[in-house]
């Protein structure tokens, strides 16, 4: 099985777990999962970076995070 973007990918699963935490108000735990996913990721870094950006309170950090996610997606 390749590391293509699919639900069975371990990094994708970790990001999905983080998304569930966010939906339930657990942003600090989600941030930890997204950062761990980022550290372990290769091509999935855009997903982890994007999800971290969504949690930013500061608008400048939010935009910078989205720009970083876009760069990884390219």
Please, could you describe this protein's structure?
It is a single chain. Helices cover 72% and strands 0% of the residues. The protein is built from four helices and no strands. The longest helix is centred in the C-terminal third of the chain and has 15 residues, at 59-73. It is flat, with a radius of gyration of 12 Å. The two termini are 23 Å apart.
- Low-confidence parts lasting 5 or more residues at pLDDT below 50? none
Q: What is the SS-derived class?
A: mainly alpha
**Total strand count, please?**
0
**Mean pLDDT across residues:** 87
Estimate the strand proportion: under 5%
For the terminal residues, how far apart are their CA atoms? 23 Å
Question: Which tags fit this structure?
Answer:
single chain, 74 residues, mainly alpha
How is the topology of this model organized?
Elements: H1 10-23, H2 27-40, H3 45-54, H4 59-73
Summarize the structure.
The chain is an all-alpha fold and 74 residues long.
């Amino acid at each position: 099985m390749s590391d293509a973007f699919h639900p069975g990918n371990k990094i994708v699963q970790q990001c999905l777990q983080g998304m569930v935490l966010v939906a339930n108000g657990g942003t600090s735990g989600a941030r930890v999962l997204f950062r761990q996913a980022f550290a372990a990721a290769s091509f999935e870094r855009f997903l982890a970076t994007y999800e971290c950006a969504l949690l930013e309170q500061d608008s400048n950090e939010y935009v910078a995070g989205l720009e970083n996610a876009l760069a990884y997606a390219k």
